[in-house]
Design a protein that fits this description.
The protein has two domains: 300 residues, ABC transporter type 1, transmembrane domain (ABC transporter transmembrane region fold, Up-down Bundle); 245 residues, P-loop containing nucleotide triphosphate hydrolases (Rossmann fold, 3-Layer(aba) Sandwich), CATH 3.40.50. 65% of the residues lie in helices and 10% in strands. It is built from 20 helices and ten strands. Strands 6-7-8-3-9-10 form a six-stranded mixed sheet. Strands 2-1-4-5 form a four-stranded antiparallel sheet, with no helix packed on it. The termini are far apart.
Length: 583
């Protein structure tokens, strides 16, 4: 660890996070310099205390020396208090702003990122890695800015008193610096591994909570506990190795400090015995040296913490460098004519196989379009292109004649409502969930939407009605109730385009009929794209697309396809059998 490498590390990795709070930090540095000056004054006072009072018996010194000592200690204590408060305040502000900025960035990332990254890794970056940056300012930089000037001031005092004594004490310094840098690099590498394991642990907890019903029904608790325990043991080993490295640095620093102090006592003692220097000179130099070695140890410890923080910064930089969704500039406030797919093909990240191939399709305003096909046929991928969850690998999607990539994303998505099989409700009241994305919706609109969705009576039976707080994902409601609240939410949004992604596939016959009735009310007057598995939805569609292996293999009305498409006829027969069996 040399000065240039430490400076480069600070400039390249740390300063960009700290610079917005430079005013507070620089003011804190001023108070740290005052504190260091006071510490130097205290060390300077050792000589007159010993020589003037204990040796020369100059009692007149007692009239001012105690007051000077009280003043210096008060000045140092007050300066340290202000310095510490300002640095810790800056660290809290930095963490607050960085969390907000990272979370905002997270929500603007394309969905493809979340297909390749686990939720645990992402959560770990937002929570744990940013928390490490708090210690960077409140502890690490606090130590550097506080102890660095102290080291300089004390060296000045020590060299002024007796330069050769001070120089002898510093022979151990190069070894301390080299060891600190060597062990600090190992700490950084090990901390990166530990944070990665912590991400896995976070992901496993989230996965277990989300999929708890599946875990229980398959009696897989022991397997999950075993897997979790293995990761915890792995994390323990990694963190314990970091502790060993840090404690080894402290031990070697103590040994080096002991060698330095021992050399000063030996050589300085010889000079006192020979009458070259006074006892006051020796103790003043010795006190200054001790006050140098202690801050040097703290700086060494902080350097290893800095290396840990750099590992967290590396992980945050990876997240920050992910490109956000690119919004276009063309403003739209209505859907006038059609959505057009021209020779669209798509491959998901990292996949060689096409999810969609050569799609040419027009969806007209006011049309009800049903999309059918076996699992993996590309139905969901096709509809995900309409709200621009991702852009096609090849070809272009047009919205009323505009390349969809040129349209303002908020405008585009504001025209689209969605009800899917996997209903997402948030931990808030029923009213808040219905008004989600439409904060200006009135209570009357919410009540009307709940009636159209056949959920009003259920809500009124709840103790707090529309103010009833739903648990996470709305799991304190039945599947059918959650689905109808999602439909009411779409009704409140009142978008001209509606996407229904197998919205009733997970429901029993009773709930399915209730939801189907709600959907039919919702679909009136809207352009509707339905990923369908129910016969009634298919038969009532204006047009049906049959998909297979990412391609549209047939298109037309129900009657036309029954006569001309063996693939559709087979799918329809399969659905018919499944519906008959479920009755």
């Amino acid at each position: 660890m040399n000065k240039s490498s430490l400076t480069q590390l600070f400039q390249r990795k740390v300063w960009r996070f700290v610079s917005p709070y430079a005013g507070s930090v620089l003011l804190a540095v001023v108070f740290s310099l005052i504190s260091s000056g006071a510490s130097g004054g205290i060390a300077w006072m050792v000589k007159p205390v010993i020589d003037s009072i204990f040796v020369e018996k100059k009692y007149a010194v007692l009239t001012w020396l105690p007051l000077a000592i009280i003043f210096l200690y008060s000045l140092r204590g007050g300066s340290q208090m202000v310095y510490s408060l300002m640095m810790r305040s800056a660290s809290l502000k930095m963490v607050r702003d960085l969390r907000i900025r990272t979370y905002s960035h997270l929500l603007r990332l394309p969905l493809s990122v979340f297909g390749s990254e686990t939720s645990g890794r992402i959560i770990s970056r937002v929570i744990y890695d940013i928390s490490m940056l708090q210690s960077l300012v409140s502890d690490t930089l606090l130590t550097f800015f506080k102890e660095g000037p102290t080291v300089i001031v004390m060296l000045v005092v020590a060299f002024y008193r007796k330069w050769d004594v001070a120089l002898l004490a510093l022979v151990v310094l190069p070894g301390m610096i080299r060891l600190t840098h060597r062990f600090g690099t190992k700490v950084k590498r090990q901390k990166g591994k530990a944070q990665q394991t912590l991400s896995t642990i976070t992901h496993q907890v989230g996965e277990s909570v989300t999929g708890l019903r599946v875990v229980k029904i398959f009696i897989n608790e022991e397997s999950f506990v075993s897997r979790f325990m293995n990761e915890c043991l792995k994390h323990y080993g990694q963190e314990y190795k970091i502790i060993r490295l840090k404690e080894m640095i402290k031990f070697l620093s103590d040994v080096a400090s002991g060698v330095g102090v021992g050399l000063v006592v030996w050589y300085g003692g010889l000079l006192v015995v020979k009458g070259v220097i006074t006892s006051g000179d020796l103790f003043s130099s010795l006190g200054a040296i001790i006050m140098v070695l202690s801050p040097m140890k703290k700086i060494g410890d902080s350097y290893t913490i800095l290396q840990e923080t750099v590992a967290a910064i590396d992980r945050l930089e990876w997240l920050e460098q992910l490109p956000e969704e690119k919004s276009g500039t063309v403003r739209v406030d209505s859907f006038q004519k059609e959505i057009c797919f021209e020779n669209v093909s798509h491959r998901h990240n990292g996949n060689d196989e096409y999810a969609l191939q050569n799609i040419d399709l027009k969806i007209h305003k006011g049309e009800i379009l049903a999309i059918v096909g076996a699992s993996g046929a590309g139905k969901s991928t096709l509809i995900d292109l309409i709200p621009r969850y991702f852009d096609p690998s090849e070809g272009t999607v047009f919205f009323d004649g505009h390349d969809i990539r040129t349209i303002d994303l908020a405008d585009l998505r504001g025209l689209i409502g969605l009800v899917s099989q996997d209903v997402i409700l948030f931990n808030g009241s029923i009213r808040e969930n219905m008004a989600f994305g439409k904060p200006d919706v009135t209570d009357a609109d919410i009540e009307k939407a709940s009636k159209l969705a056949n959920i009003y009576d259920v809500i009124m039976e709840l103790p707090d009605g529309f103010e009833t707080v739903l648990g996470e994902r709305g799991l304190n409601l039945s599947g059918g109730q959650r689905q109808r609240i999602a439909i009411a939410r779409a009704i409140c949004k009142n978008s001209p385009i509606l996407i229904l992604d197998e919205a009733t596939s997970a429901l029993d016959r009773v709930n399915e009929q209730l939801v189907q009735n709600s959907l039919e009310k919702l679909m009136k007057g809207r352009t509707t794209i339905v990923v369908a598995h129910r016969l009634s939805t298919i038969r009532n569609a204006d047009r049906i697309l049959v998909m297979d292996h990412g391609k549209i293999v047939a298109s037309g009305s129900h009657n036309h396809l029954m006569e001309n498409s063996p693939a559709y006829k087979q799918l329809y027969h399969t659905m018919n059998v499944q519906e008959m069996e479920s009755v």
